[in-house]
Amino acid sequence: MRQLRSALFCAACAICVAACSPLVPAQRGSVSVDWKAELKEAQAGIKKDPNSAFWHNQAGVAYDALGHFEHAVKELKLASTLDPTNPIHDYVLYPLYKKKGMRSQGRKVLLKALEKDSANPLGHFEFGYVLEKEGYLVDSLREYGTAKQLVVEVKGPEYIDRRGNPFDIGSVREEVDKAIDRVAKLIASKQSTK
């Protein structure tokens, strides 16, 4: 039963991330989730085990889906504190900040996730995106390049981290060359105007 919940949770996270990211193509079909019921279940899980990072993460995802940003952030930060070696909580928190345009917080949470697992191509790609938006073009180009190198090493559509968390990297494969070209052109145009 717990594995089924984990699978449903991962599917829900993928939907949330896809909905937040302009880089992820539109999904075919949809999944209907009763987020109030999910939140209720997560709260029951927290009541049974207040130190369960899993249930706090579930509550954070449900709160976000219900439009309760502050509660979502609080639950996801707590999940990350309770399970400090697992980057999934940080990667679930990042799109919340991205949706709100909170680049500084997004940068911090991505750096935290990359400290836990520096081989995640999606993390480097998203960090490159943040740096590009902040105007750190050389650093952005480096991160996009790292994402490109790492994505080549991944067999199949998902990167699986040391904790067994799956990350869909299809969007990285599709977009990384475009991102590298775009940033390289921006750097070249800035250098030619000097």
Keywords:
Serine Threonine Protein Phosphatase 5, Tetratricopeptide repeat; mainly alpha; 9 helices; disordered N terminus; 194 residues; two-stranded antiparallel ribbon
SSE order and pairing:
Elements lengths: L1 H19 L14 H14 L4 H13 L3 H14 L5 H13 L2 H14 L4 H14 L2 H17 L4 E3 L5 E3 L1 H23 L2
Antiparallel strand pairs: 1-2
Total helical segments: 9
Mean pLDDT: 88
Side by side, the strands of the main sheet go 1-2
Q: What is the distance, rounded to the nearest whole angstrom, between the alpha carbons of the first and last residues?
A: 62 Å
**How many DSSP E strands?**
2
The name of the CATH architecture is Alpha Horseshoe
Q: What is the CATH homology-level superfamily?
A: Tetratricopeptide repeat domain
Helix fraction bin? over 70%
**What amount of the residues lies in strands?**
under 5%
Rg over CA atoms, rounded to whole Å, is 17 Å
Total number of distinct structural domains: 1
Structural class: mainly alpha
Low-confidence stretches: 1-28
Overall geometry = elongated
Report on the biggest sheet.
2 strands, antiparallel
Name of the CATH class? Mainly Alpha
- The SSE order reads HHHHHHHHEEH
CATH topology title: Serine Threonine Protein Phosphatase 5, Tetratricopeptide repeat
